[in-house]
Amino acid sequence: MLKVKILFVGPSEAGKSVLANFLSESTEGIGTYIPTQGVRILEYENPQIGGNGKGARCRFELWDCGGDQKFETCWPALVKDAHGVVVVFNPGLPSHVKEIEMWHSYFVQQQQLLESQCLLIAHRKPGSGGDPENLNLPSPLNRLQLGRM
Ligand SMILES: Nc1nc2c(ncn2[C@@H]2O[C@H](COP(=O)(O)OP(=O)(O)OP(=O)(O)O)[C@@H](O)[C@H]2O)c(=O)[nH]1
Ligand SMILES: [Mg+2]
User: Keyword set for this entry (predicted)?
Assistant: First the structure.
């Protein structure tokens, strides 16, 4: 079976755990903020991706990483053998927009991952400002695929 390791990284409180729970259909929903300590690994199987419907299956590991930089010593272990990196941030917070350069630099550029292996997600929480349509990201972030939610 095809195995895919995807990292969710980015600033604290960006919504990484909420998105990872949603994708893995975990029953944990939106609620009180519980900072991720180091990493949580969520697994799920998708029978459609990577196959022709004849039984080929894909097993995803979502590595939901804590955004606190005190976990930096764990980063080499987290990024090992990753196939893709999703950088989640809140476009309404200038500090987040600044911080994602660091996340991209360590988790993508320094690992020699391709730009096509990285996805930025501008995750706007209800009530927070910022217009994700008018994001002016500096190079090389402006060349990456950007998802808005
Ligand atoms: N209402 C609402 N709340 C959200 C949404 N996304 C995230 N939140 C809230 O924002 C807070 C932080 O979300 P998390 O997903 O835990 O943030 P995180 O990026 O995993 O943070 P760290 O683990 O510290 O890196 C939580 O209280 C969530 O419930 C959303 O789309 N809507
Ligand atoms: Mg988290």
Answer: GTP-binding, Nucleotide-binding
Query: Where are the chain's structural domains?
Result: 2-148
pLDDT in tens, 102-116: 999 999 999 999 999
Residue whose CA is closest, atom 30 of ligand 1?
Answer: 125
Give 123 Cα–ligand 1 centroid separation in angstroms: 9
* Two structure tokens written together for 48: 């459609």
Fold topology of 2-148: Rossmann fold (3.40.50)
Ligand 1 pocket, 31 CB below 6 A? yes
Put simply, whether the predicted model's pTM sits higher than 0.85 gets the answer yes
Count of alpha carbons within 13 Å of 94, Cβ hemisphere only?
0
Which is it for strands 39-46 and 118-122: parallel, antiparallel or unpaired? unpaired
